[in-house]
């Protein structure tokens, strides 16, 4: 199976990973791209949604709540983001105030909740790892949000560095050590020609894939260990999305390489 996809930017809402049509069973992802005055509408049905504002501004209506001029980053490296949460059984309308690009994440839910606009000051900013596996991490959606089953963040990987190293996984129910959570990565680079590498593997060899990833590529992780590297000269952006019964990051490292963290 090919766990890599490429988003070709176009105006409107483009669904990229859909349950029944990708390797994930409970996590979906798409992109909204609008110019000023363009609109899209989404019926959440039995799913909870999060809109991650990558760049630009938009007016957003969730049910009977409207927020104006949400967003503001010129690019994804321009500080923490805005996000909007929408519960199940409601309607979302997004209208561009200028050129805007939004990541759309959703997962089935059996719970009711309330709309929420989460602002940059609510994002948790962390510095993780050390050279050569150094990156900054922004936690956008976790148990402190209105979401029930989603955990979402952004990672910024220094040129030539690795991320998620050693290879780590979250596909076994062994809380609090590890939880079952599907994941998707979406990649951008600080220069459009930038690139990196994404690996996904299982210890039994059922999955053993490595992809060269470029601007607007995405990879799915239904299970298995995964780790990432960006090429020298190119800072990498990763929008990462997780869906599971336990919010937060509960993962285990590949035991063959976990010794590196004990040095």
Summarize the structure.
This protein has 263 residues and is an all-beta fold.
Tally of DSSP helical segments: 0
Q: Work out the helicity level.
A: under 10%
Please give the largest β-sheet: 8 strands, antiparallel
State the shape: globular
Structural class: mainly beta
Rg calculated over all Cα atoms? 18 Å
Order of helices and strands: EEEEEEEEEEEEEEEEEEEEEEE
Q: State the total count of DSSP E strands.
A: 23
> N-to-C terminal Cα separation, in Å?
36 Å
Percentage of residues in strands: over 45%
Q: Write down the overall mean pLDDT.
A: 97
Unreliably modeled segments: none
Can you describe what's shown?
The chain has 263 residues and is mostly beta strands. It contains no helices and 23 strands. It has strands at 4-6, 12-17, 28-34, 39-43, 47-55, 57-62, 65-71, 83-86, 91-96, 100-108, 116-118, 124-128, 135-141, 150-157, 162-169, 171-174, 178-189, 195-201, 208-214, 217-221, 225-230, 236-244, 252-253. Strands 1, 12, 13, 14, 16, 17, 20 and 22 form an 8-stranded antiparallel beta sheet that branches. It has a 6-stranded antiparallel beta sheet with strand order 2-3-10-5-8-11, with no helix packed on it. It is globular, with a radius of gyration of 18 Å.
